[in-house]
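TA notes, week 10

Several of you asked for a full example with nothing omitted. So below is the full record: structure tokens for the whole chain, then the designed sequence directly under it. When grading your own attempts, check the secondary structure regions first.
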């Protein structure tokens, strides 16, 4: 098509040949090149076949040189009669393997230009076909461009060999990290052990009746991720203002009762502590949006524009407008609205490849039972939430209902659903003066 239209396809045959030549001249550069360049970024089919062969050989620890590569090309069924001459030629014309990463950068740049052109054609096609409303087309266009920026395609059939390699890469990263959990720590070790942390592309639901501490545990996670782990966190609050959230974060970070922060009754030492906490908090990468009219599409679009993102927190589901429509629930079925939102949040987690933690209200059904601990059936309006969520955590505090109970500050994080493993109950300590949670077995002076 491009040739018929007289358009020049972005590519650089000399750069592609120089990458292949460098690898064959000096195989020690293979690990660095494989980190920078994917096989499908080569335009020339023979260059792509050689690079895929080298990739496979490296993955299985085989020796890489011109003879072994040509032999493996025969095994893989991609050998051509002119391959020996071509391999000899690219090695001859490659000036030096020392500049291989510069050659790889050129190949990657041309590949991105080709994909950008393809994406532009797809977007143009959608517009002229009239295949949707403007807002829906804009959302689709943003998703395609974001996928380009992340260096991956949306959907499509992928060879299992590539998927296996991705799994091995993830295993190597997990082993190198030395962590006992594959995901992002919640800051609550007992909960981490149960759910294996907050993992990429997971939709995690934290559900409870009002007053149980949903926002508090979410802020715990945000503060731990940003302050202790140096992660980037995006928070969308449809109920509380930015200032209210930050006040709570400061209370927890400085260990100063939240009531003192509201009244301003602080000792000299507390002023110093709150100043230190404010400086530490200001240095973190936490972004807060308190627009109460946001849809999932709005949140997704905002997250796509961030250069770095590790965790998304949404407070809370029942306050959100229906995904994509912008209409309030008075104009449509609440059940359908919640179903749409929960499904779009799962899609959002997969697209952004980060954990998305969403808070949710439980129905009043639990209030009518003698045992008021949350159950999956208490999720309000829709069973779709239960279906879409990878992890569902219910919060319960006996002390909320019975101030005379044995331990009014004991809280329970009940893992009601866990796609990665077991369900069960984790005991937590509720710290009412800081509106925060803590692992029962740990004290503040034990924290890292």
């Amino acid at each position: 098509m491009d040739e018929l239209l007289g358009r020049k396809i972005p590519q650089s045959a000399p750069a592609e040949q120089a990458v292949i030549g460098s690898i064959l001249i000096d195989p020690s550069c293979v690990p660095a090149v494989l980190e920078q360049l994917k096989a499908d970024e080569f335009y020339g089919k023979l260059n792509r076949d050689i690079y895929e062969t080298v990739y496979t050989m490296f993955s299985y620890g085989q020796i890489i040189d011109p003879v072994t590569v040509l032999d493996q090309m025969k095994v893989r069924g991609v050998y051509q009669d002119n391959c020996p001459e071509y391999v000899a030629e690219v090695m001859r014309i490659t000036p030096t393997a020392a500049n291989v990463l510069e050659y790889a950068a050129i190949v990657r740049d041309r590949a991105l230009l080709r994909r950008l052109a393809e994406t532009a054609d797809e977007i143009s096609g959608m517009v002229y076909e009239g295949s949707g409303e403007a807002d829906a087309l804009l959302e689709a266009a943003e998703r395609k461009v974001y996928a380009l920026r992340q260096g991956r395609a949306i959907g499509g059939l992928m060879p299992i060999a590539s998927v296996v390699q991705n799994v091995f890469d993830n295993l190597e990263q997990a082993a190198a990290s030395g962590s006992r959990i594959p995901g992002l720590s919640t800051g609550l070790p007992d909960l981490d052990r149960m759910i294996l942390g907050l993992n990429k592309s997971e939709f995690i639901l934290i559900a409870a009746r009002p007053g149980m501490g949903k926002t508090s545990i979410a802020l715990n996670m945000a503060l731990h991720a940003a302050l202790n782990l140096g992660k980037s966190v995006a928070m969308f609050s449809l109920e509380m203002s930015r200032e209210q959230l930050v006040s709570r974060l400061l209370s927890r970070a400085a260990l100063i009762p939240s009531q003192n922060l509201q009244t301003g009754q602080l000792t000299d030492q507390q002023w110093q502590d709150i100043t230190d906490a404010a400086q530490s908090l200001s240095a973190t990468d936490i972004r807060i949006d308190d627009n109460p009219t946001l849809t999932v599409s709005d949140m997704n679009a905002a997250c796509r524009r961030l250069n770095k993102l590790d965790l998304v927190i949404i407070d809370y589901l029942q306050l959100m407008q229906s995904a994509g429509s912008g209409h309030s629930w008075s104009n449509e079925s609440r059940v359908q609205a919640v179903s749409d939102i929960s499904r779009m949040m799962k899609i959002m987690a997969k697209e952004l490849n980060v954990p998305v933690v969403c808070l949710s209200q439980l129905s009043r059904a639990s209030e009518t039972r003698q045992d008021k601990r949350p159950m999956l059936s208490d999720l309000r309006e829709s069973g779709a939430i239960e279906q879409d969520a990878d992890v569902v955590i219910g919060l319960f505090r006996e002390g909320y209902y019975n101030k005379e109970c044995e331990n009014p500050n004991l809280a329970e994080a009940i893992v009601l659903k866990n796609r990665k493993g077991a369900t069960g109950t984790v005991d937590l300590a509720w710290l009412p003066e800081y509106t925060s949670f803590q692992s029962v077995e740990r004290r503040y002076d034990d924290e890292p």
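Residues 323-331, 443-448 have pLDDT under 50 and may be disordered. Use that as a sanity check on your answer.
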